[in-house]
Amino acid sequence: MRGTVQTVVGPILPEQLGVTHMHEHLIADCSFSGNDARKKFDDVDVAIQEMKYFKQAGGDTIVELTCRGLGQEPLALRRIAQESGVNVIAATGFYREVVYPEYVKRETIGQLTQRMIDDAQQGLEGTDVRPGIIAELATEADTEKVSPLEEKVFRAAGRAHLVTALPISTHCWAGHHAFEQVRLLTDEGVPPDKIVIGHLGVQHGLEDINRRLADLGVNLGIDAIGYDELGDFQDKDRAALVKRLIDLGYLRQITISQDMMRRYHLKHEGGHGYGYLLEKFVPMLLEVGVTEKQVQVLLMDNPRRILTPKSNEPKRDDQGRSG
Ligand SMILES: [Zn+2]
């Protein structure tokens, strides 16, 4: 339905989205990556409880980017949404090439496109749970070029967007291959403002690439909030990056999220939970001079604009870029 946003329990009005995390995982198996058993969320009851905490912290909506290759369970997502009261938006799409289903090799772009269109129109994995986004399309961070199979998947996703109007979100570690990702999608006709390039706030020295990407009109995924233990790029640095990008005029193109994918981050296991962004990171943003109003743009206005199919979007004011 145009004009509404598809959640796992059905379509909702854009104004019902509220405070939205644009890049998270609730049920996912990413343990293949680094052979790390901690990268696995497989307990629906735990996820329901985690979502109740998220709601208590002020959260309303989770965009859940688990897709083919990451152990997607559409009916589990529906139960989590129903029992927690949090809106959950599911994804159709493909993750990294190492976990592509075998058919990606032999099928044409058109056939892969049709798979995503079928998901959007009928439901994921033989259920009637429909996706609200195409994600988490990945390219590798350690390759010289985007691979032929990755290109096929990106082009198929772009074509699926033209039919479904679903926005597209990517995995693009530290911006590696970012311009190629944008090129492939826009070459297929995807408007840049319907694209979120993910993982752009994960290390030092990424201001320039964020700026250049924003100038192309795409949205910046500043995710991995809450992963201070993984390196020397800390949440205070992420907050400073967000502030800097706002000062440069890119407020309307920034999305912030946690990309939860470690068991030890769950409250159930003593971690900070999905409420961390609202409880701990927003105060850091305010501390560096981001205003309450700007926080609202990051967490509410931008997700609503990106997630709402274009035909129903209110006219954008051209002042939108000013912070
Ligand atoms: Zn992710």
Features:
TIM Barrel, 14% strand, 323 residues, binds zinc ion, six-stranded parallel β-sheet, alpha/beta, 10 helices
Characterization of this structure:
- The chain is an alpha/beta fold.
- It has a single domain (17-312), classed as TIM Barrel, CATH 3.20.20.
- Helix content is 37%, strand content 14%.
- The chain is built from ten helices and 13 strands.
- It has a six-stranded parallel beta sheet, with helices on both faces. Strands 3-6-7 form a three-stranded parallel beta sheet.
- α4 crosses α5 (148-164).
- The longest helix has 17 residues, at 148-164.
- The chain starts with a strand and ends in a 16-residue tail after the last helix.
- The model is unreliable at 312-323 (pLDDT under 50).
- It binds zinc ion (ZN).
Helix-strand blueprint:
Elements: E1 5-7, E2 10-12, E3 20-24, E4 28-29, E5 40-41, H1 44-56, E6 61-64, H2 74-84, E7 87-89, E8 91-92, H3 103-106, H4 109-122, E9 133-138, H5 148-164, E10 168-171, H6 178-187, E11 195-197, H7 207-215, E12 219-222, H8 235-247, E13 254-256, H9 276-287, H10 292-307
Parallel strand pairs: 3-6, 6-7, 8-9, 9-10, 10-11, 11-12, 12-13
Antiparallel strand pairs: 1-2, 4-5
Zinc ion binds next to loops.
